[in-house]
Amino acid sequence: MPRRTITPDEFDYLRTVGLGERLRFFRKEIGKLHTSKAFTTTAMSERVGVSHQTIISIERGDSKKPAYQLIYKITQDLGIPFDALTDEFYQGEVRLIPIGEPIETATEISDEVPLSYIGSIVYQIFTDGMMRLIHDFQSSRPLDKEEFITTLGRIIGEYESCKNPDELFQQPHPMVKAATLFNEMDKHPKAFPVFPRSVWNDHQNSLIKKFEKKGED
């Protein structure tokens, strides 16, 4: 049996434990289902580029706040969602995710994400509801999936640092938000349409030209 879905009882168990116990659960259960690669701490550590003691430390709970870059690599190796190790994933309704050896067909092809630049449009919003564009930033080189999510997470983190402390306690980590957003693009392509960059440039220039007379020199 190369692949299965976690059960409601397993989800309830994962809801009650911490990051380390969740990692141990997924590592052992996924290891039972795989025939192509091993999921011992040693085998996993070699693939993600850390010592096996690091993974053992996370599972035991000795490493309270492991780097999110490392957690991302671990979840990619396990083939589970990035946030499946976080508390936020287990809040609310039951989510039964598939685990185990993936079927080697179109799934593998769809996992190949092309390189892409990341950009950010910065604008100023006044308290009276008016706004103005300030700058359109873009990375100087294309990024792979991991780099894109990491960069997006840092951008989200900067914006969320402006929130009230009470709000921050209720928010998932910026990297979780970034990974979720990235994955949502594949799940709901109609909500994230792709269009030529030139079309956006024309639209932005037209918008600026329309209102430039109302601005100050």
Automatic annotation (TrEMBL):
Highest taxon of the lineage: Bacteria
Pfam families linked to this entry: HTH_3
Any one GO MF annotation of this record: DNA binding
Listed PROSITE patterns: HTH_CROC1
Coiled coil: none
InterPro entries registered for this protein in UniProt: Cro/C1-type_HTH, Lambda_DNA-bd_dom_sf
CDD domains for this protein: HTH_XRE (cd00093)
Start and end residues of each HTH cro/C1-type domain: 42-85
Protein name: Helix-turn-helix transcriptional regulator
Native species: Brevibacillus thermoruber
